[in-house]
Write a structure and sequence with these properties.
Elements lengths: L6 E10 L2 E11 L4 E6 L5 H7 L8 E6 L2 E2 L7 H7 E4 L11 H11 L5 H14 L15 H14 L4 E5 L7 H16 L3 E5 L3 H7 L2 E6 L2 E7 H6 L4 H10 L1
Parallel strand pairs: 3-8, 3-9, 6-7, 7-8
Antiparallel strand pairs: 1-2, 1-4, 4-5, 9-10
Main location: membrane
Subcellular location: Cell membrane
Protein name: Amino acid ABC transporter ATP-binding protein, PAAT family
Length: about 240
């Protein structure tokens, strides 16, 4: 195991015009660790998550993946995004493609796998998330929970070093949330490094190793998840948790 963290952010600032959205964020996620980001809407947590694989470019600061600086402008962004998977609130699946084709696409165009290799790897990833019987279905034939599991399989098939989850259950009906959280729980158990924006307290209590609380572009509290949930030290953390409960 490398001595370097799997993910490290150093002094991340992000401006949108004159709006200072992130104000010098530092964070470190070890190999196999699950880090959760929490905070009110507009606090900067999703923007920070997107900076970790350069969907958003930090205005200042560095992001390192497994010891390598990825915010250098000479770094191949496509390779970064292949190595650091991303699962969004909405599933971003191509409606004209089957589940298998959606998952295989990145393997063909980014990893440069043959079509037969990509299809085999895609089928394996879909089986891993419990969708072996749905390979030939199009997104409109799948439930929201199933579509989100296809999106997770799409990341898994690329064999990423880590996966980022941006409120992956927020668009789902309540009865579908558990099937996505079960897949994420299994990934954590297998040692996948994950950074998760989520307000699913019960899930985070069981799975997340550390909890980082954002407010107005700053980290106001961080620590072991159970400690932060049960004994928050910052008033903004206490206010936010009260609102959730």
């Amino acid at each position: 195991m490398s001595a370097a963290p799997m993910i490290e952010a150093r002094g991340i600032h992000k401006y949108f015009g004159s709006m200072h959205v992130l104000r010098g964020i530092d964070a470190s996620v070890a190999h196999g660790e699950v880090a959760a980001l929490m905070g009110s809407s507009g606090s900067g947590k999703s923007t920070f998550l997107r900076c970790l694989n350069r969907i958003e470019e930090p205005t200042e600061g560095e992001v390192l993946i497994d010891g390598s600086i990825i915010t250098n402008m000479r770094t191949d962004v496509n390779r970064v995004r292949a190595d650091i998977g991303m699962v969004f609130q909405d599933y971003n699946l191509f409606p004209h493609m089957t589940a298998l084709e959606n998952v295989a696409l990145g393997l063909i165009h980014v990893r440069k796998r043959s079509r037969s290799e990509a299809r085999d790897a895609a089928a394996s990833a879909l089986e891993q998330v419990g969708l072996a019987d749905h390979l030939t279905k199009h997104p409109q034939q799948l439930s929201g929970g199933q579509q989100q599991r296809v999106a997770i399989a799409r990341s898994l098939a690329m064999q990423p070093k880590a996966i980022l989850f941006d409120e992956p259950t927020s668009a789902l009906d309540p009865e579908m949330v558990h099937e996505v959280l079960d897949v994420m729980r299994a990934l954590a158990g297998e040692g996948m490094t994950m950074v998760v924006v989520s307000h699913e307290i019960g899930f985070l209590r069981k799975v997340a190793d550390q909890l980082i609380v954002f407010d107005a572009g700053l980290v106001v509290e961080r620590g072991p998840t159970v400690r932060v949930l049960d004994e928050p030290e910052h008033e903004r953390t206490r206010e936010f948790l009260r609102a959730l409960r």
